[in-house]
Input
Amino acid sequence: MLPHVAQIHAGGGRIVLSQHSGNAIFSELSSTYPLKLLSPRVQQKCVAVVYALTYGGGLVGGDQVHLSAEINQAAILLLLTQGSTKVFKSRAEQRLASVKRLFEFPNDNPPATTSSIGFTSPNTIQKMDFKVSPNAVLVLLPDPVTCFRSASYSQIQTFHLAKDASVVVLDWITSGRRSRGEEWVFSRYSSVNEIVVDGKRIARDVLLLETEEGKDDVRMGSSTQQRTLADRLSPYACYATVLLSGPAIQTLAEGLRERYGKMTVMKATTPTELLWSLSSICSDSDGLGMIVRVAGKDTELVKEWLRDALSSLADVVGIDVYRRAFV
Amino acid sequence: MTDDEETYLLLLLSDSNLPTGSFVASSGLESYITHAFGSRDAYERTVSFMHDSLASYTRSALPFVSDAHQLVSHYRNNLTNHDRSNTLSILRSLDDLYETMTLNHVARRASKSQGVALLSLYSKGFSRKPTSTSTSVDADDDEVVARISDLVTQFKLCVRKEATHGHLPICWGILTAALGLSLERSQYLHIFLQARSLLSASVRLNEIGPYGAQQILLHSARPLIISQLDKCKELRTGVLDGDNPADETANGPANTWPLGELLAIRHDLLHSRIFNS
Output
């Protein structure tokens, strides 16, 4: 067994990938319950694939996952999941109560939110830290996160890139279990993605989707009209963000820019099935960073769009490896 | 500052004729309409847009207004150990964080042009003419004005040299603190002006009439502004305490309306448009 396993907490994971004469080699690949990391063998030079899985295919209230990864010089890592990350609302009993908690909170309690039906649901937290060395590439193409009714979920991902390192970060969320009629009825979802290149922050995307507390504002003599999450996000059931940075994604970025530049919007009578936008990351990042946002009426539409729009990544990770994403 | 003086400042700053550049910004409303979002009823459409847009703007921008205001007002009133260059450098960090969090080139463009307009407003419109006879006989007061004018001038110079961006929320915090307006009033006025500017845009887009705009501003906007301020007035960016904002998920600035952001970015794709954002 790897000696490092003993050092990581519940829900912890560690990946260190290096490259020696064209072979991608893990000097570390370890994880603890409920996180599981699997790496299938792939043929592509310098490329490794890791699946980050959770037992039972989901996370419950209070679960904490912390993955840290280092991708060394000229190695390429594709990180995937298998099926969407399902976030259940809390359970009364603490899962794995005997295991030391991953994060220390000042008041000894994880941040809790009160759901619309009035009980306190412990937050589920997923934290990922990545370090990417020069000429190395990290491609993060997970399945979307699906928060069930009353669930509370926080995700924090930080990417520390050396100069000439590259990343592709996909972060997406669906409206819930539509088969059960759930449409944006989770309690709280927050997602932070921060990219730091050579010590300088170039992008910090923070998305917060929170069910408004159902209190009427009586001070003004009239009640404030409440806007639910569904009011704000409809008619779409899936929102995706893709952050791109570094020399390895320049072909992809140019392709997207060209595609975007060809669009013209005339006055519509009804919203389209899918919408996407493209923006540079910040004015002084030498045009090296981009952000793509996509919204679609269902998850399949968004997935198909992404698979197609990002297909030039096949040149980076290899066509066979790319086919493993968006299945 | 007395209550009367503050009220006078509020009246001045809420003048819709101020050259602040907000009249060319629709903050995504034009794109929202062209893309056929919202109710079929134009009045309702404006109200729901204002709701979602203002909530997201308050959550993402107000912490920057608050921090810039606190920093500059402490500097103005000599309540801090930060000297001028220190204060300027923290203002630049705030400005930089706002830039990296505004992942929308259309919004960045609008925010910068309005920010710079506010700095010019201060130096050209609100500064005291050196030759004019000052009403204040207080030498201390003159010193405060000189000290703060110098800070604003230096910050404006940084923007001109492109050493910083000059984003609207930061510049608003600087301007209102420089004038001596309290934090609470500065926050309130900023969100009020944002709401009013959305409604003016709606009038110009022929969505609502001028009477409708006043009606919304009086009846729908007020409780909305108050509830958003209640939620966000205590939020800070973490920059002043030297915190790493990466660790914050709950208490920092955040975007709460991804659809609005997407549509605002797509503004530049509109075949015909009358606004810049």
User: Anything to note?
Assistant: Chain B touches chain A through 52 residues (CB under 8 Å). The mean pLDDT of chain B is 92. The radius of gyration of chain B is 19 Å. Residues 3-10+23-128+138-269 of chain B form one domain.
